[in-house]
Structures are given as C-alpha cells and as structure tokens.
Amino acid sequence: MNVTNSRNSKVSSSVDFDAPGKQHGHLTLPHSNNLSAWGTLRLPVCVLANGDGPTVALIAGSHGDEYEGPITLFNLADSLQLSKINGRIIILPALNAPALATATRLSPIDQCNMNRSFPGNPNGSITEQIADYVNTEIISRADIVIDLHAGGKTLDFTPLAAVHFLENKQQQLRAEEIMIAFGAPNSLRMRELDNRGMLDTIVEDQGKIFVTTELGGGGTATRESLQTAAIGCRNVLAHAGILDEEITLRSTRMLEMPEDNCFVMSPCNGLLELCVTLGESVYRGSAIARIIDTENTGQTPVEVNASRDGVLMARHFPGLIRSGDCLAVIADEVPR
Ligand code: ZN
Which pTM was predicted? Predict the structure, then answer.
C-alpha cells in the first residue's frame, strides 16, 4: 500500500496512520539526482495504534549532526510493544534523512534547515516537501509533539527539555507538565532568536502541546545523554496514559531565558578558551571565555564576560570560534 494524501504532495506513506497495529515503513518522495535518475528518498516511520488514547508524535533527526534523538527513536520503535499501548505513537527518527547520512545540520540536497522550513510547501524543495507532509499528515493527527534535538557539531548543552513562553498560559502549563515528566536534568522556559519556520511554532500555533530537547552536543551522543532521552520519551508516553509503564521519577533544575541577552555572541575570531564548565553558575561581568589571536604572540586575548547572572546552559563546541558565532547561552535558575 502506498497512500498519497496531502493535496498536491508527492510524498507517499507505506504505513496507514489511522490503522490499528504496529507498522514499520517509509515516507517516500521522488528525488531524481545525478546518482539515480528515477530515484526516491525514503524516510523511516513507525506507527503503533491500539485503543482510543491520545496521539503522540516523536520526531528526531531534523538536524543531521544530532544523535540522541535518532538513536533513541530507532530503539523505541523496535522495543515498544503494542499490547502496552493505549493511543497512537507516530515515530519519525530521521526526519532529515539526507542530512543524517552526511552528518550535517542542513540537507545536502537543497541546503535547507529542516527546522526553519515549516509549514513547508508541497511544490517546494525536498526539505519543504517533507515539512509540508509532516505538518499536513502527522502534526494534524497529534495531540502532543516531542522534537528531540541536541547541540550538533557546533554547540553543547547542559541536558534539558524545553517549552516556549506562550501567550496562552494554559497551553504553556500543559506543555510544562510534559516537560517535567520527561525528567531531563534541566527543564527550560525558552526564548528563540527567530522562531519563524520552526516545527515548534506551527505545532504551538495549532494549540497543541510541544516539547523540545537539547540533550548534549558536539556531534556525538554519550551514555548519559542517551539514557536521558530514552527515559524521557517513555516517561512522556506513560504520563500521557499511552504507555502502560511506571514513570521513572527524576529531579530537574528549572531554568528560564527571559531576555535576548541570554545569548552571548563572539566579538571576534580566534581560539576559544572557555573559563566556565557547562551547567556551572556565572555572574554578570565575570569572564566566561577568552578568545586568543591565532596569528600573533604578545596579543592580549579578548575577554568575554557574562551578560547576566545565571547558569552556563550552552557553549560553542569547536575550539575555533568566529565573530558572530553563538559563544554561550546563559539561563536563569528559577524555582518551579
Ligand atoms: Zn537541532
């Protein structure tokens, strides 16, 4: 069976999202290219449906250099048993499969950022076509959407689950309940530099529950970050009443990004000498990094100071930094 649903979309699915049972399959779209004249692109998908509980969409691999999400969701798709499900779980572990194959943030096909391509376009580039299909056929069916991210090759995070500040406070509180159930070491009320084109935004605009994560980074995954991701996903499913399993209780530190000055950008190029460990407290005006000139001795390094009191939530990962790169993110620690 291959069902093409979405208006003008050329994306088809080998699974029926509305049928009971456990199905493994693919979303497929035409991709004529130099290596395959009549080729197609295939994205793995798994659906479990049993009973009349709510629908959760679990998504990962939006950026191809972030690994906790894909590893966790491939494992979850294997291990979840239909007999323990009441509701529907749609798992997309490699949303930007071409980027995952090349270990790049952006798609190597059209250079698009998947998480800046929503709501997508059925007549657009490959990434826009995928975004359109996900929005039309999957987000439309979901009550809760979990989108697993990490820092990729260029950032590293103290592991966290996050929601956004929303105008609808009831919606925000419902999202926060799911975030707390996820049980990451940190839980964040988050601010975006630019939320246009994000999956987050289109899900929230539809009044649905959206929780994202930043589980680590540096272009790899650790035992700890994978454990956080695996426990978090199962906890969310159990909390929503979809998975018949005990929640694994975990303590979490509450963080907030109340202002744009949480983002600290690099003022120059050079070698990054970080003065603070990820997750540590920083104080306004104290040094968080020194940037060293790579071409001359005898130069005083440029000191970068904390823009506010808080916790070093994220850092630039590579040893070299350029002017304008995000060097750090500082969040406030707040009571629950
Ligand atoms: Zn990401």
Answer: 0.96
